[in-house]
Design goal:
Strand content: over 45%
Structural class: mainly beta
Mean pLDDT: 93
Largest sheet: 7 strands, mixed
Low-confidence stretches: none
Number of strands: 11
Order of helices and strands: EEEEEEEEEEE
Shape: globular
């Protein structure tokens, strides 16, 4: 029900926009999150949004990443600017209890 896309290979300093398209139901009131799993590490929370309101970011991405949603398109997004090599990993969206399949982001130095 969740399809993540937008990952890719970029150089440090570049930007990417990840999208998580939801199908089958609307998720207006759910908690929406983006996670990152770097190679050899546990999955960690990057950004969260509660029902389109309260937003939180991991300290490592604050000021560079922006989580947003489109109610009309039923899509969750993560705008990632000023990417760093340490941002490399597979990014997963989560809306309520549902997980996307992940999209790989690789940032070269």
């Amino acid at each position: 029900q969740l399809q993540a896309s937008g990952g890719g290979l970029v150089q440090a300093g570049a930007s990417l926009r990840l999208s998580c398209a939801a199908s089958g139901r609307t998720f207006g009131g759910y908690v929406m999150k983006w996670y990152r799993q770097a190679p050899g590490e546990d999955r960690g929370l990057v950004a969260s949004m509660i029902g389109g309101g309260h937003i939180d970011y991991a300290a490592s991405v604050k000021g560079r990443f922006t989580i947003s949603r489109s109610v009309a398109e039923n899509t969750l997004s993560l705008q990632m600017n000023s990417l760093k090599p340490e941002d490399t990993g597979r990014y997963y969206c989560r809306i309520g209890q549902y997980w996307g399949q992940g999209t790989l982001v690789t940032v070269s130095s």
